[in-house]
Amino acid sequence: MAIGTKRRTHGGYILVKVAYGNKNWRPEHVLIMEEAIGRRLRRAEQVHHINGIKDDNGIENLHLFPDTKTHIAAERSCADVVREFLHSGQVSFNRESGIYQRLL
């Protein structure tokens, strides 16, 4: 495949072919963050999709965490907010469709 070719993982992330060979694919969101900060990511650093959409790789939707611990804390805070909305009645789970929905 040509360098620059993109493919989607089963998890919804976009990979980009960066060199020839089978193992030369890198996550697009990582490449975009590295370009924005002007260096390769450090081993522990993690790129987070702010809106939760794994193929929305615009820099405005990406945030760089220094490590897994802080990234997990952010993910948990999102889940906590959703639970607050559920408990306050602003969000409900529709059993027919199997999705959460915001109530007006």
Low-confidence stretches: none
Order of helices and strands: EEEHEEHEE
Biggest sheet, spatial arrangement of strands:
1-2-3
- Which fold name fills CATH's third level, the topology? Homing Intron 3 (I-Ppo) Encoded Endonuclease, Chain A
State which percent range the strand residues make up. 25-35%
Query: How does the overall form come out from the CA principal axes?
Result: elongated
Fraction of helical residues: 25-40%
**Number of E strands:** 7
CATH hierarchy: architecture: Alpha-Beta Complex
Give the termini distance in whole angstroms: 48 Å
Largest sheet: 3 strands, antiparallel
Total number of helical segments?
A: 2
| Count of structural domains | 1
- Mean of the pLDDT scores? 95
Radius of gyration (Å): 17 Å
Helical/strand content category: alpha+beta
Specify the CATH class.
Alpha Beta
What does this structure look like?
The chain contains two helices and seven strands. The protein has 104 residues and is α+β, with helices and mostly antiparallel strands. The strands form three sheets. A three-stranded antiparallel beta sheet has the order 1-2-3. The protein is elongated.
